[in-house]
Specification:
Rossmann fold; binds S-adenosyl-L-homocysteine; single chain; globular; seven-stranded mixed beta sheet; two-stranded antiparallel sheet; alpha/beta; 236 residues
């Protein structure tokens, strides 16, 4: 018993020590990433750019490849999954047109990076992940970075998360054959949903808006995401 207690005390010490380390040690790399990869390609929402400059993206990346954290590409995060390229994170986030009091749902928590960006721009974020191992890492990191307005849920995200609905913004960060119907139901009036929709190999970035009975659809170019696996996604 006391052994166990000692263990957890020790862990807490390490965390405290870590917290005092300069989280922003790669600030200059982030500034360049935002300027050259995100802003240069047309993302101009200052709140999105600020959030991307602020959050330590390298912390969301496995230690052995952290050197590449600010490169212009997606990176593997384990279990065959990836963290999106910074530009795609910036683009999809800006397409959500978030206001500070909005509630957002993300499908595909992955590393937690996208959810952490959303946490800076909205009031609450619910992020769903189907793989418990990945979800638990994202959850721990969020706590470590003192991000308290993100809830990580382990479930099939194609069903959405009814207890938190309606959502002003919904973002799917995995390739979807079509937009899962439950997510459209859980979108608020005037809500925006952004998702990669298409085949397993290539998708189009789609934004839909709900206005009364009307659903409008806009396209924003080709992207490649890992598949959304679930009841209203691809079958495993
Ligand atoms: N947004 C993430 C990257 C997502 S990668 C980030 O910022 O790092 C896509 C993630 O979607 C993977 O972790 C995968 O396990 C998850 N996923 C796939 N199908 C899912 C489903 N039906 N529900 C929830 N998560 C799903």
């Amino acid at each position: 018993m006391s052994q166990k207690k000692q263990g957890s005390e020790h862990q807490r010490d390490e965390e405290d020590e870590d917290r005092t380390m300069p989280e922003d040690s790669r600030t200059e790399e982030r500034r360049c990433m935002v300027r050259d990869q995100v802003e240069a390609r047309g993302v101009d929402d200052p709140r999105v750019l600020d959030a991307m400059r602020e959050l330590p993206r390298h912390r969301f990346i496995p230690p052995e490849i952290q050197a590449a954290a600010y490169h212009d590409r997606p990176l593997p995060i384990g279990c065959g999954q990836t963290i999106s390229q910074p530009y795609i994170v910036g683009l999809m986030t800006s397409l959500l047109e978030l206001k500070p009091y909005d509630t957002v749902l993300e499908i595909g928590a992955g590393s937690g990076y996208q959810a952490a960006i959303l946490s800076k721009l909205a009031r609450t974020v619910v992020t769903i992940e189907r793989l418990p191992e990945i979800a638990s890492k994202a959850k721990d990191l969020m706590e470590h970075l003192a991000i308290f307005n993100v809830m990580v849920v382990v479930e099939d995200g194609t069903l959405g998360y009814a207890p938190g609905a309606p959502y002003d913004g919904i973002i799917i960060t995995a390739a979807s054959p079509d937009i899962p119907a439950p997510l459209i139901d859980q979108l608020a009036e005037k809500g925006r949903l952004v998702a990669p929709v298409g085949s397993r190999d290539l998708q189009q970035l789609v934004r839909i808006r709900k206005q009364g009975d009307q659903i409008s659809r806009e396209l924003f170019g080709g992207v490649v995401f890992v598949p959304l696996l679930g009841r209203h996604g691809w079958q495993e």
